[in-house]
Amino acid sequence: MENRSQWGTRAGFIFAAVGSAIGLGNIWRFPATAYESGGGAFFIPYLIALLTAGIPILIMEFTMGHKYRGSAPLTYKKMSKGSEFIGWWAVLVAFVISTYYSVIIAWAISYSIFSFNLNWGSDTEAFLFTDYLNLTVDPGQTGSFVPGVLIPLIIVWAVVLGILFKGVKKGIETANRIFIPALVIIFLIIVIRAITLPGAIDGLEAFFAPDFSKIGNPDVWVAAYGQIFFSLSIAFAIMITYSSYLPKKTDLTNNAFIVGFGNSSFELLAGIGVFGILGFMANQQGVPVDEVVSGGVGLAFVVFPAIINEFPALNELFGFLFFASLVLAGLSSLMSITETYVAGLVDKFKISRSKAVLFGGGTAAVISLLFATQGGLSFLDAADYFINQFGVAFVGLVEVVVIAWFLRKLGDFKEHANEISDIKLGWWWTLSLSVITPLVLGYTMYGLFKQNLLKLFETESGNYGNYSDTFILFGGWFVAAGALVIGVLLALTKWKSSEAAEEESKKTGEG
């Protein structure tokens, strides 16, 4: 008997998986990464990374969740008792990300309201850091709460936890059926407006102009694999959890290709929109496009408001649409991130879904209040860098190596996927997961550890963000290490009942 929650339709699952993959990073990370890594030439390593790491790992995680019918911890437990900690580690990484990701969505809510009167004024940088975030304390200090961040943050958690309370089919699936089409429509409007602006062609030329000399640079290939890894929501328990809600008969490999290419299509759309707008800004200021290119939080909350100020017409509406797209992309991803630990708690401790949402989501919501303080930005910056670099990528490396090399499960997974899928897996899938992905991720992790760990022992601080050694140790390294340590401790705790590791737990709130 199938007691586990299920998606109502295949389309519902695809909307949810694509919604998880399409997040804030697609809009503000990909365009800048592509530009800096060879422009049009970057699409060669990017496509190779998608086909040798992104889609293969998606297929693997879809197959794991579908075959073992469990959250990430339960899935790893069923594969091998000793590997359960990897599932909890991935869940804890997702937990940390949810605490600060929610705050960035809160900023986007505030900025969508500011758009109506262009409240950010002419000095958008000063407005963000001084007027809005009230950043008046040193890194490591919290200061007081910032109401302009705190209130929308409470709204974010109320919406996300409310959706999760309703369950998989009535909550997550229904919400994504609204969010994802709305996001695509809004972004298409943004792109159409962007490419009709004066100077937009210059921006697009800068984005697409291929610099083939960079293809020989190992850092460009690392950037391509990194972008695929971070943007597809792989290696932090999401896709394992989501695929565990699929019906017994489902086309796993086809789903993975649809999600992988759907995510990449949106990234390309985002690149066109962003660089069309940056070309307009360069045109207005009479400078080359490379002088206005930026990524990350600065692009969204400093550069874009400045550009919106210069729009020839309907700038308030355009501003609202842009920040609304960030809100929708963020909410769909935050739902999936939070669902990973909700599902883990339900499976491990045999509690109701409602209790898991209240405890897991409630704890994340309380911790997220740290980032709504005057010193919240520095905590957010350090946690984001370290949990992404030494959490997501490291989990991915361990996951692939353990499954391919130690547990030798790729053959079983290939057989399971091929039985129910139209697109059959062959040698490319096995080679990608057993050789290519481990080598690239291993090289990446070696470089990151060498670059960041050694800096703690230098006499002068050369840390990430030029933060002090003490702050980086506690605000960065301890956060990343804490996800692993707590994950191991959770793996060592006993399952609530003897059947819990082998049977799916019932979930409440499903119709």
From TrEMBL:
Q: Which SUPFAM superfamilies match?
A: SNF-like
In the bilayer, the protein is annotated as: Multi-pass membrane protein
Please, which domain of life does this record's source organism belong to? Bacteria
Its primary localisation, in coarse terms, equals: membrane
The answer, when asked if Oxidoreductase is one of the entry's keywords, is no
- As recorded in UniProt, coiled-coil segments are none
Per UniProt, the keywords (alphabetical) are:
Membrane, Transmembrane, Transmembrane helix, Transport
Which InterPro entries would you find in this protein's record? Na/ntran_symport, SNS_sf
Q: Which Pfam families match?
A: SNF
UniProt-annotated location(s): Membrane
The transmembrane segments are: 12-31, 43-64, 85-109, 145-166, 178-201, 221-245, 257-282, 320-344, 356-380, 386-407, 427-449, 471-492
The record, for PANTHER family, names: TRANSPORTER (PTHR42948)
> Would you tell me the protein name for this molecule?
Neurotransmitter:Na+ symporter, NSS family
Give the source lineage, highest ranks first: Bacteria, Bacillati, Bacillota, Bacilli, Bacillales
